[in-house]
């Protein structure tokens, strides 16, 4: 909402309050002034001149030689405007003046003739071309005759004005008009609003004899009023009105249209004018549109309606999309003589739906959507009638033809006085609270400690006690409210076990060198269905109205997003990258449109594991780098003994370098090398990934720590090298060794794997270090030998292992 | 005779010890003079032939000589060992300015750091951390927050719907509704709700279709707007510096009444006006307000008995302001040159 500081002074005395101070006060009381505009900024040396004589230029057909009286002197100015004529009073940029766009006016020679200044168009004075009335669009501006010659021209163009741009939110719709702003400002400044009721001189002919109204959708149209005005002369509207409209961002058209707009800006009540002679009947019927009913609106567009849309008709066909835009068929033209003026109230939700479906947001619809003052609708019709009589020679027929109630009762709110101080945390005395409410023009009666408040319909945003608390708080000033700390029961708080352990996992990942990232949950359909830990049979969850194909489906795995981040880095010559993310994946649920959500941990590594330095060449990350991180994680969670790794084939992964991660036999994730073709497609180097369903894992709760006494007896260590077929997995040997080493075998460690010259080509040698221990005593050699023997035999029997000599 | 012999031996030994150039020659001297078959032992063996008067004198002298030689050997040994150690240390000298084998740790995401800082502050103030689903029911995302189906404020947050009733949450406020509901009308409820939210925006320098939010909620008997102001003051000083001031401006949110917006005095210029605060001296940080009675009622709390405040902030905005980050997309592009700058955050 653009508010003219000059116009506002019609309603409130702003003496002693600068526009900047006013903006600050309005902002602090609740409506943000987003911007202060100074339309005359940078202009100087513009005066009112009178064209005393105007003759064609002897050398140039399109130019005029004008003798212009500037008050103190008369100068010759060459002017190219087609509308310049003797006798006009015009804005003149004198020599040395500054006009729009920082242009300075100099004395000039035009086709051999001296020109001492420039007669200006509105655009040259900084007016937006879109708002310039068409009579001045291609020429100079012309003042009213009473403007004094030689005076500074800026005040007569309202270029000395200051415009405040108010950001109107849903609850401040009452300030979408000048009167509303005036009431607000008056309350803030504790001053009075100057408001004059419109005076309409009506003829003896009654409007009811010309037109009748009926409303079929009464619950959506609580009030519909119409006035009839005859004998109208369509001309441009008065210049003061044009300038006010321009300041408010509305282009002046003609007196009839401008008056409707002006009253809307002034009262907040949208008005519509129909050419009565084009109306096509003497009956207004407001009804729901038929399905696919068509109407051509003022902008020349054909609109197809649905049965929820409200339509103003002449009983047969539509003449306006109610509250949104009028129809072309009844548009006021230059030849219009008789006008039907509509002042109605339409249901906000209904208007909003229609306007947004037709993508047709008008000044009218945006006001109806947010609500209008019910008690001002008929008054606005009177105000328009008054102005039409004054500036369009209209005869106002007697009465308003109407359906519904002209006014609604004021909203009553009863509340305990103390609640205001209780909620705000203040100790305002009763008189001060009542005083603030009275400044807002609310009626207040006190009965003991109870307030009975009556809220004018203008403030349709105020309906409950909390609204009253807000009104008192904001006018009193939130900055004057003290800052306290809650004196309620003190409460204990801590992270949940899951939140705590998740933080530990983050720290652990970072300690292994992985950088934490956040990527998007919404991705392409293709990404959304790849690399899931558990491949889903159903399609990924999709949003119905995505912004782009890049973000239309919910991810089931984090890995595809991480691959993109690696690619981003490679494109920028960063080849050594290690990342992890903990975030939600969204797993489609066949029975519900809502996916189930769980947090996963995923990591990705590529490039060098160590830096190239003075000690030698760097090492690259590989499968075992990524596996080491995963193992470290499980060890830190003390579940390493419940985890197994099983070779697996997964789409997008290297078939020989991928393992499922199993917790107590159940797949909870995977790790491995990206498939070479995937690497090639994305232009990646060797890249390794893992993903683990971490949430369900961590939510099982932390393994209890059980303290072990420090050993009092020594342990015994034995090394063995076993030759096995290459197909035998390390995990198999581990399993057999552990199984048969119980209970004396304390730990097993694989310390060498050898394939080559000294073993057969289909075999490999694996060397283990075994540690035996008994907490109760020192083991004898014989006891250790017995277990060791048992292990060797089991390895031989179950896996064909031979002791390497 | 024997006496002279001892004195001669003493001289020989001392000379030998003095000239020893290593532990090995010293050891040889030890064996030669003090060994079981050494000359002093020989002298002692020959003492039988001495008179009773001479015997103790020679005996004493022999012991003295032996002791002296042993002491000298020890002395020399220590000396030699010290020299040897010195030599070894000299040989072991390294260039201590060569770079070490450092362990490169990963970085914590800046948004995660900011969220953690806020979480820790509020845990200290008695707030628990609640999380909730990112795919929400329309009811919890809007209706339970006093945003019925046709509420015009729904325009303010265009949403990613999955069906008519299911959508990507547009704020973390639905977690409030869930939490209140769980408490079945009995306070206090003190929670912080961090998480990802989604809006139908085109990604550009200042918009992201996915971003983070942290909501706070405190419902109890007699919670006041002044308490909100107090808590937010603590928050602002904690995050932006002890000399920050806050100001509350009235605003509108459907789920709070009254609603406010909180500005902090500019941490760059201290309030005089600069580029960061666009010359106003104030920076808008978050939205807040007293929980709307409809929200309390819908979640089973009696607004006559309970009041509460709620606030919501954007970690991205806080991070961008605090570090002068110019583009919100950096948080999700994850360039490690960006990420690693904030490892200390």
TrEMBL record, chain A:
Cofactors that this protein relies on: Mg(2+)
Chief location category: cytoplasm
Annotated SUPFAM superfamilies: Anticodon-binding domain of PheRS, Class II aaRS and biotin synthetases, Nucleic acid-binding proteins, PheT/TilS domain, Putative DNA-binding domain
Keywords: Aminoacyl-tRNA synthetase, ATP-binding, Cytoplasm, Ligase, Magnesium, Metal-binding, Nucleotide-binding, Protein biosynthesis, RNA-binding, tRNA-binding
Entry-linked PROSITE patterns: B5, FDX_ACB, TRBD
Cross-referenced Pfam families: B3_4, B5, FDX-ACB, tRNA_bind, tRNA_synthFbeta
UniProt-listed Gene3D superfamilies: 3.30.56.10, Bira Bifunctional Protein, Domain 2, Ferrodoxin-fold anticodon-binding domain, Nucleic acid-binding proteins, Phenylalanyl-trna Synthetase, Chain B, domain 3
UniProt-listed InterPro entries: aa-tRNA-synth_II/BPL/LPL, B3/B4_tRNA-bd, DNA-bd_dom_put_sf, Fdx_antiC-bd, Fdx_antiC-bd_sf, NA-bd_OB-fold, Phe-tRNA-ligase_IIc_bsu, Phe-tRNA-ligase_IIc_bsu_bact
Domain of life: Bacteria
Any one GO molecular-function label of the UniProt entry: phenylalanine-tRNA ligase activity
Limits of the TRNA-binding domain: 40-154
Cofactor note: Binds 2 magnesium ions per tetramer.
Domain B5 residues, every copy: 408-483
EC number(s) recorded for this UniProt protein: 6.1.1.20
Location of the FDX-ACB domain: 711-804
Record: residues binding Mg(2+): 461, 467, 470-471
Catalytic activity from the UniProt record: tRNA(Phe) + L-phenylalanine + ATP = L-phenylalanyl-tRNA(Phe) + AMP + diphosphate + H(+)
Subcellular location field: Cytoplasm
Family: Belongs to the phenylalanyl-tRNA synthetase beta subunit family. Type 1 subfamily.
Binding partners and assembly: Tetramer of two alpha and two beta subunits.
Name of this chain's protein: Phenylalanine--tRNA ligase beta subunit
């Amino acid at each position: 909402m653009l508010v003219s500081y000059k116009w506002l002074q019609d309603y409130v005395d702003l003496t002693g309050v600068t526009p900047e101070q006013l903006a600050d006060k309005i902002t602090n009381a609740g409506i943000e002034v987003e911007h202060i505009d100074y339309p005359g900024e940078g202009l100087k040396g513009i005066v009112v001149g009178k064209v005393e004589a105007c003759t064609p230029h002897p050398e140039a057909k399109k130019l005029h030689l004008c003798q212009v009286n500037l008050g103190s002197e008369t100068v010759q100015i060459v002017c190219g405007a087609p509308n310049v004529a003797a006798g006009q009073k015009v804005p003149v940029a004198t020599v040395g003046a500054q006009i729009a766009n920082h242009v300075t006016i100099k004395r000039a020679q035009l086709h051999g003739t001296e020109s001492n200044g420039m007669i200006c168009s509105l655009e040259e004075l900084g007016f937006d071309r879109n708002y310039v009335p068409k009579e001045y669009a291609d020429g100079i501006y012309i003042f009213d005759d009473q403007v004094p010659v030689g005076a500074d021209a800026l005040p007569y163009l309202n270029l000395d004005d200051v415009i405040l741009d108010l950001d109107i939110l849903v609850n401040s719709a009452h300030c979408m008009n000048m009167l509303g702003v005036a009431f607000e400002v008056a309350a803030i400044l504790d001053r009075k609003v100057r408001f004059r009721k419109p005076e309409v001189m009506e003829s003896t002919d009654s409007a009811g004899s010309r037109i009748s109204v009926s409303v079929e959708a009464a619950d959506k149209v609580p009030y519909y009023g119409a006035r009839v005005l005859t004998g109208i002369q369509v001309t441009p509207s008065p210049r003061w009105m044009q300038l006010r409209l321009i300041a408010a961002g509305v282009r002046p058209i003609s007196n009839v249209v401008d008056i409707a707009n002006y009253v809307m800006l002034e009262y907040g009540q949208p008005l519509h004018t129909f050419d009565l002679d084009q109306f096509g009947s003497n009956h207004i019927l407001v009804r729901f549109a038929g399905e696919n009913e068509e109407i051509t609106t003022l902008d020349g567009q054909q609109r197809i309606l649905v049965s929820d849309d409200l339509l103003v008709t002449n009983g047969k066909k539509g003449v306006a999309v109610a509250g949104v835009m009028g129809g072309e068929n009844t548009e006021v033209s230059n030849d219009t003589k008789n006008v039907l003026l509509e002042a109605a109230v339409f249901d906000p939700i209904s208007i909003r739906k229609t306007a947004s479906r037709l993508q047709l947001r008008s000044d009218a619809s945006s006001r109806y959507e947010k609500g209008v003052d019910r008690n001002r609708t008929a008054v606005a019709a009177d105000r328009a009638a008054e102005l039409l009589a004054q500036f369009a020679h209209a005869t106002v027929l007697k009465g308003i033809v109407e359906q519904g109630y002209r006014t609604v009762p004021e909203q009553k709110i009863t509340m305990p006085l103390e609640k205001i101080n209780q909620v705000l945390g203040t100790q305002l005395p009763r008189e001060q609270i009542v005083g603030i409410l009275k400044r807002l023009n609310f009626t207040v009666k006190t009965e003991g400690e109870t307030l009975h408040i009556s809220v004018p319909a203008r403030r349709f945003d105020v309906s409950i006690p909390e609204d009253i608390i807000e009104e008192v708080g904001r006018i009193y000033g939130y900055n004057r409210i003290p800052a306290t700390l809650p004196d309620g029961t003190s409460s204990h708080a801590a992270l949940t076990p899951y939140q705590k352990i998740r933080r530990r996992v983050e720290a652990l990942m970072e300690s292994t060198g992985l950088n934490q990232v956040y990527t998007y949950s919404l991705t392409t359909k293709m990404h959304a269905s790849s690399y899931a830990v558990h491949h889903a049979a159903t399609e990924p969850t999709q949003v119905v109205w995505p912004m782009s194909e890049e973000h239309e489906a919910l991810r089931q795995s984090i890995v595809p997003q991480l691959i993109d981040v690696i690619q981003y880095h490679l494109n920028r010559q960063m080849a050594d990258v290690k990342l992890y993310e903990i975030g939600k994946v969204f797993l489609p649920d066949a029975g519900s449109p809502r996916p189930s959500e769980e947090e996963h941990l995923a990591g990705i590594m590529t490039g060098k594991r160590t830096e190239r330095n003075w000690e030698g060449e760097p090492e690259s990350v590989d499968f075992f780098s990524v596996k080491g991180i995963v193992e470290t994680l499980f060890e830190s969670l003390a579940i390493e003994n419940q985890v197994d790794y099983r070779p697996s084939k997964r789409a997008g992964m290297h078939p020989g370098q991928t393992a499922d991660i199993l917790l107590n036999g159940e797949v909870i994730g995977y790790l491995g090398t990206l498939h070479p073709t995937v690497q090639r497609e994305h232009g990646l180097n060797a890249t390794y990934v893992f993903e683990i369903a971490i949430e369900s894992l961590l939510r099982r709760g932390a393994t209890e720590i059980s303290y072990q006494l420090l050993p009092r007896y020594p342990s015994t260590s034995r090394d063995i090298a076993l030759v096995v077929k290459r197909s035998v997995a390390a995990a198999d040997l581990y399993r057999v060794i552990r199984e048969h080493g119980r209970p004396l075998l304390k730990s097993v460690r694989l310390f060498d794997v050898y394939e080559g010259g000294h073993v057969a080509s289909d075999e490999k040698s694996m060397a283990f270090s075994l540690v035996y221990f008994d907490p109760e005593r020192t083991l004898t050699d014989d006891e250790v030998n017995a277990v060791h023997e048992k292990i060797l035999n089991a390895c031989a029997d179950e896996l064909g292992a031979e002791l390497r000599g | 005779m024997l006496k002279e012999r001892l004195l001669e031996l003493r001289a020989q030994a001392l000379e030998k010890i003095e000239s020893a150039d290593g532990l090995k020659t010293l050891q040889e001297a030890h064996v030669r003079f003090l060994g079981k078959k050494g000359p002093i032992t020989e002298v002692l063996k020959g003492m039988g032939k001495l008179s009773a008067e001479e015997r103790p004198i020679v005996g004493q002298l022999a012991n003295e000589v032996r002791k002296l030689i042993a002491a000298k050997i020890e002395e020399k040994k220590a000396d030699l060992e010290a020299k040897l150690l010195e030599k070894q240390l000299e040989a072991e000298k390294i260039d201590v300015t060569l770079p070490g084998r450092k362990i490169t740790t990963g970085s914590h995401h800046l948004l995660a750091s900011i969220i953690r800082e806020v979480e820790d502050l509020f845990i200290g103030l008695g707030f628990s951390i609640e999380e909730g689903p990112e795919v929400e029911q329309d009811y919890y995302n809007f209706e339970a927050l006093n945003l019925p189906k046709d509420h015009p404020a729904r325009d303010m947050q265009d949403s990613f719907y999955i069906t008519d009733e299911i959508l990507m949450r547009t704020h973390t406020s639905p977690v409030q509704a869930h939490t209140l509901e769980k408490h079945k009308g009995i306070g206090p409820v003190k929670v912080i709700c961090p998480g990802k939210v989604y809006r139908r925006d085109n990604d550009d320098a200042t918009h992201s279709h996915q971003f983070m939010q942290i909501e706070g909620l405190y419902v109890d008997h007699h919670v006041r707007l002044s308490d909100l102001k107090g808590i937010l003051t603590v928050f602002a000083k904690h995050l932006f510096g002890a000399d920050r001031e806050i100001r509350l401006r009235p605003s509108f949110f459907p789920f709070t009444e009254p609603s406010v917006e909180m500005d902090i005095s500019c941490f760059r210029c201290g309030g005089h006006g600069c580029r960061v605060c666009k010359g106003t001296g104030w920076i808008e940080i978050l939205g807040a307000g007293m929980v709307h009675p409809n929200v309390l009622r819908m979640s089973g709390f009696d607004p006559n008995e309970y009041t509460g405040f709620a606030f919501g902030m954007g970690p991205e905005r806080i991070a961008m302001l605090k570090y002068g980050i110019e583009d919100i997309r950096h948080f999700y592009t994850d360039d490690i040159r960006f990420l690693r700058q904030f490892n200390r955050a």
